[in-house]
Amino acid sequence: MPARGKQDYQRQVFINCPFDAEFLPLLRAMVFVLKACDYVPRCALEADSATEVRVEKILRIIGECGLSIHDISRTQLDRKSRLPRFNMPFELGLFLGAAKLGGAQHQKKRALILDVEPYRYQKYLSDIAGQDIRAHGNNADTVIGQIRNWLNTHNADSQVLPGKAALVKHYQRFQKQLPIMLKDLKLKETEISFVDWSKLIGMWLVAVAKV
């Protein structure tokens, strides 16, 4: 695995995706592959402060990230409101706007856009037609492969990253050892936050590197 600990702009990755239980396996896979490839996963779940308006927090994080992953697959209507949720396309728009209008540094921003199947986005978000949208089929292993390949094209160190198969196997090892880690830390799986998940992965990667 690459050397860890780098915190520069081009290694900060803003994650824009659904935060519900249904999407959680994909979000956790996203965080793992980023950490395993020596990138820093960022999202709105990382900080909870009543002093910061949500959109301002998102804009701050976007401003600190050179890369971003946007999952726009959640298009179904909410069961209670019978309305769709537009947070993901909205945050994608904020990131693309920052990349175009934010000055020299922000013009270096790069994004990976994911959907559940190819070309589906053309029916509900036609303004991004012509951009390279990747499909994941709601499969965590596919998410890992898509993100790995995308990161490999933006790797500032020009170092070839581990392949999809190796990263998937690595993730499976982590998942098998996770219950032991949680027991030692007196932490229930249902209590794991975004920050906890990122730290758990980091702890495990350091332990594996020492073996």
Architecture blueprint of SSEs:
Elements: E1 12-16, H1 24-36, E2 40-42, H2 54-64, E3 67-71, H3 87-101, E4 110-115, E5 133-135, H4 140-153, H5 164-185, H6 194-210
Parallel strand pairs: 1-2, 1-3, 3-4, 4-5
Helix pairs in contact: 1-4, 1-6, 2-3, 4-5
Report what the structure shows:
This protein is globular. The longest helix is centred in the last third of the chain and has 22 residues, at 164-185. The model is unreliable at 1-6 (pLDDT under 50). It starts with 11 loop residues before the first strand and ends with a helix. It is an alpha/beta fold and 211 residues long. Helix content is 44%, strand content 10%. The chain has a single domain, classed as Rossmann fold, CATH 3.40.50. It has 6 helices and 5 strands, in the order E-H-E-H-E-H-E-E-H-H-H. A 5-stranded parallel sheet has the order 2-1-3-4-5, with helices on both faces.
